[in-house]
Design goal:
The complex is a heterodimer of chains A (about 290) and B (about 200). Chain A is α+β, with helices and mostly antiparallel strands and about 290 residues long. Chain A has helices spanning about 5-10, 10-15, 45-50, 60-65, 105, 135, 185-195, 210-215, 230-235; strands at about 30-35, 70-75, 90-95, 115, 120-125, 145, 175-180, 220-225, 270, 280-285. Chain A is globular. Chain B has a two-stranded antiparallel ribbon. In chain B, strand 1 (about 175) and strand 2 form a beta hairpin. Chain B has helices at about 1-25, 45-55, 60, 75-85, 95-105, 125-135, 140-145, 165-170, 190-195, and strands spanning about 175, 185. Helix content of chain B is about 45%, strand content about 0%. Classes of the chains: A alpha+beta (about 290), B mainly alpha (about 200).
């Protein structure tokens, strides 16, 4: 995408999905995370570090808010008058939500973050100038800035650890913003293989690193355009729609609450900060509470 | 006297500053005639002898181009596969060097000529499929889109800028989808297709 093309076709490039004029043709990558299955073990986060060449910054920098974990586990406490408050711990894996109308994209002064045709929120490191506007405008705070040059200045991978860096992912340098990519390097390979065989990527053919590492299979990832994919089925079962900013919840609906044990049939799907109308691509499945069972 | 000292210190500072800057500056990516820098290879490989005089398909040696992202530099075995049986050139200095490597069981340390930045992903297979398989164009012409007229040169040298604007200039063109079809298609115009 040349700069002249970008400037001339600004409105086309800047279109906010999901709208009728730019539907997703072949792929719309999306995720569903079942918080009831999530145990907060952090395996997804570790897998992300390994897959995406994330630097481990150390305790001091972490305390300064300079951590680089694209995937983090947020902890929430719901003591709820329990005898053992630990039982009230809740975990929420948080990564770039790949919003369809991403607030970060509109504020980038150099167009370093764009929407791809597959519905991903792309970050182009070599175009980024480090203004950090995108991070300021991100409601989820999932963008991470390289305050140091981790490959050479702050040696994050002492020899021979640099040998384990993933060659399919850039090793970022100082002064650029980075974030979860939905493992775009894996998506590219899957799309490439599918194209050689003259077909589309099938469900389950491509996994993100976090999904692959999750011991409880809490994370599912796939193509939302394909109605047969697991993700599309999950979204449909929860009546979560991409272009809707308030999902149907059956809170006022008593039909499911006839028996005490029917809580699993309740709609649990939601997206974070839906009211901001960023239209995220990640659906979370609410935890089934102890009290609700 | 103090003024003089100040001025001379300033001048020395300026001089040392500029000279150290010049020393740190990398050589230019492109020369004036848009050629890449001259690369001294361990053996001066004559592309013209192989590709032009012998008419060998590019993908006989650069095998992976049709099935992988990288085209690949042929291993020594590939060279020996032919040259073992070619008696007429066995006493030539370059071939002697080749046999020396073979006898010592030492691979030839070819240097990279077409080196893209780490943040770019390029896929040979996609381009080979698009132009050679679908459009049925001659191999040397298709490889030449990016590598120039290799059969006219000896040691490979970068002949095209391989910059983003240059890539995009072709991706923006409407290329026929196959040999006979009227339909055309453009190359992808999406940051993450090429950037990683």
């Amino acid at each position: 995408m040349s700069v002249s093309n970008l400037l001339q076709n600004w409105s086309a490039v800047r279109h906010t999905h999901p709208v009728g004029d730019a539907p997703h043709a072949e792929y719309k990558w999306a995720m569903a995370i079942d918080l009831d299955a999530c145990t907060g073990c952090n395996a997804c986060s570790v897998a992300c570090y390994a897959e995406n060449n994330l630097p481990a910054v150390g305790k001091d920098k972490f305390e300064h808010g300079q951590q680089m974990h694209w995937m983090r586990i947020e902890r929430y406490w719901d003591e709820d008058g329990r005898d053992m408050p630990d039982q009230g711990a809740q975990f929420l894996p948080m990564m770039c939500q790949h919003c369809e109308a991403a607030p970060c994209e509109t504020v980038c002064p150099v167009g370093a973050t764009n929407h791809t045709a597959d519905g991903l929120n792309s970050q182009v490191y070599n175009r980024c100038v480090g203004s950090r506007y995108c991070s300021a405008n991100c409601p989820f705070k999932v963008r991470y800035f390289n305050w140091y040059s981790y490959p050479d200045q702050e040696i994050s991978w002492p020899s021979p650890m640099e040998q384990q860096l993933n060659p399919d992912v850039t090793v970022r340098t100082k002064g650029v913003m980075e974030k979860c990519t939905f493992c775009v390097q894996r998506l590219t390979v899957a799309k490439h293989n599918a194209r050689n065989e003259g077909r589309l990527v099938q469900d389950g053919e491509v996994q993100t690193a976090c999904q692959q590492a999750c011991p409880t299979s809490a994370i599912s990832f796939g193509n939302l355009v394909d109605p047969a994919s697991k993700v599309a089925k999950q979204w449909k079962a929860q009546q979560v729609e991409l272009a809707v900013d308030k999902q149907a919840k059956d809170e006022g609906d008593d039909s499911h609450e006839v028996g005490e044990h029917h809580s699993t049939t309740k709609l649990r799907g939601y997206r974070i900060f839906e009211e901001l109308r960023a239209y995220p691509s990640v659906m979370y499945l609410e935890r089934v509470r102890e009290s609700a069972v | 006297m103090r003024h003089f000292l100040r001025l001379s210190i300033l001048l020395i500072g300026l001089f040392s500053g500029s000279s150290s800057f010049a020393a740190d500056t990398l050589p230019p990516v492109n020369t004036a005639d848009d050629l890449g820098p001259q690369v001294d290879q361990p053996i001066e490989f004559p592309h013209n002898r192989h590709a032009k005089d012998m008419g060998i398909n590019c993908m006989y040696c650069h095998t992976y181009a049709r099935r992988a992202p990288v085209a690949g530099i042929p291993p020594l075995q590939k060279c020996m596969g032919c040259h073992n049986g070619i008696e007429s050139v066995k006493d030539k200095p370059r071939i002697k060097e080749l046999f020396k490597h073979w006898d010592e069981k030492k691979p030839i340390a070819w240097k990279k000529v077409h080196d893209l930045p780490d943040y770019v992903r390029f896929n040979h297979e996609r381009h080979v499929k698009r132009f050679i398989v679908q459009q049925d164009k001659p191999v040397q012409e298709v490889c030449g889109y990016c590598h120039g007229d290799v059969k006219e040169g000896t040691v490979a040298r970068r002949q095209k800028p391989l910059s983003m604007g240059w890539c995009v200039s072709c991706h923006e063109k409407a290329h026929p989808t196959d040999k006979t079809a009227q339909a055309t298609a453009q190359g992808p115009n999406d940051c993450w297709q090429c950037h990683k």
